[in-house]
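Exercise 7. Predict the structure of Membrane protein from Amycolatopsis tolypomycina.
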Amino acid sequence: MKSSPKAPSPWARARARYRWLDHIARATNRYIDSGGYHYVASITYFSLLSLVPLLMVASSVAGFVLATQPHLLDTMVHAIVSTLPGALGDKATELLTGFVEQRTSVGVVGLAIGLYSGWNWMNAVRDSLTALWGQNRSDQSLLRLILVDLLALLGLSAALLVSFLLTISGTALGSYLLRLVGLDDTSWGHQLVSASSVPLSLAADWLVFLWVLTRLPRQKVGVRSAVRGAVAMAVGFEALKLAGGFYLRLIGDSPTGIAFGSIIGLIFFISLVARLLVYVTAWTATGSDAPPKPVQPPAPVVLKPVVVVDPPMAVPATVGVVTGVLGTLLALGLRRRARR
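Solution. The predicted structure, encoded as tokens:
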């Protein structure tokens, strides 16, 4: 008697009924199977490591600015001496002047460390996107790999600069229009400008993330399949920015919160952005309009010939004759003993 087929589980029925739920389930499976957690950790680590050389370069630039404007340096020294008492103020002043004198070496070291950490960061991002798209990492020489990743880092920097300029220009244009019509003193006018800058920020973010999803994977990806993913990434990124601003307002009243909460918040924000990028890539790669995942070639089969040598026909015959003779002699010997 044949057993009746097992009924599908509620989860399977829900996935079959709702396409969006099935899409999320497939994206989650791709995220887990491709090692998304490891890629998020790698991107977060190298993002934090890249902050150190960025601060060094920014400090070097500030040192060059102070060196070219002695009155500004004197103002800062006077403010430090008047704020910090006695020897502490003198020590801070000595550190500031020494920092200005060593601005070139600080900048050079910062650039060197920045190239190393920036390449590792870009390498982690590109490897994660390549894996989540279901692609195979192409075999390249180390030098070519480094050069391509550094060019991609420059391209991403240019895309971020264009996005930043679009946002700033939109805000500046709104402020100029308010002054032109005489509404720059009204609060609702500034709120209107702030509200109108949100779509512009979303459009700029969408362009950046569309470039990231289509150009950073190590193999070519179609733009059409990444459009919705870029929209989801732009909306999620703006939501994280709003949550980050709310978090900073919460900890702004406490000195301890400013000292430690800002660092913890920065680490958490970078981790969330990395996780969002990796998961959205998995969601984009498992869409109905995404390119099919390439079929992995089977493992090579090694054929080893095995030569079996059959024994000669004379050997079994000889063994049989010898065995028969020995058996006959043994039987005759036993019969003679029995007669005695």
